[in-house]
Amino acid sequence: MRRMASHLIGVDRGSVMLFSDYQDGGAMWTGDGPRELRRVVEFAEPFRSPPVVQVYISMWDMDRRTNQRADISAEMVNSEGFVIVFRTWADTRVARIRADWLAIGELSAEDDWNVG
């Protein structure tokens, strides 16, 4: 359980087309074995501290002739943004992936003191 001390809670969200590899013969569509893609996401404004981030696949387009294997996560979360990481492996062929995300965390107030 994460407790937030601030009375100002911010919610930011977005949608990112991670790749469309079937169009240009990219590695997610033509490759095999372990493959990974990373995308940096910046929040609309900084949070007071690193927020809780949820990432999920909102659109997928995969070849039906192979097993559908996918892993998506948020890494390197800080107050200004995070990295979406998409992974697949073995013979899975992924044409396109869109990821949506949601961040919830504390915001700074105008009357917060910055002692430093």
Rounded average pLDDT:
92
Q: Stretches where pLDDT falls below 50 for ≥5 residues?
A: none
List how many beta strands DSSP finds.
6
> What is the overall silhouette?
elongated
**What percentage of residues falls in helices of 4 or more residues?**
under 10%
Describe this structure in words.
This protein has 116 residues and is mostly beta strands. The chain has a single domain (9-106), classed as Sandwich (Immunoglobulin-like), CATH 2.60.40.2080. Helices cover 7% and strands 52% of the residues. The chain is built from two helices and six strands; from the N terminus they run E-H-H-E-E-E-E-E. The protein has helices spanning 21-24, 27-30, and strands at residues 9-20, 35-42, 52-62, 71-78, 81-88, 94-106. The chain has a three-stranded antiparallel sheet. A hairpin with a 2-residue loop joins strand 4 and strand 5 (81-88). It is elongated, with a radius of gyration of 18 Å. The mean pLDDT is 92.
What is the gist of this entry?
The chain has 116 residues and is mainly beta. It has two helices and six strands. The chain has one domain (9-106): Immunoglobulin-like.
What labels would you give this structure?
3-stranded antiparallel sheet; Immunoglobulin-like; 2 helices; elongated; 116 residues; mainly beta; 6 strands
Set out the fold topology.
Blueprint: E1 9-20, H1 21-24, H2 27-30, E2 35-42, E3 52-62, E4 71-78, E5 81-88, E6 94-106
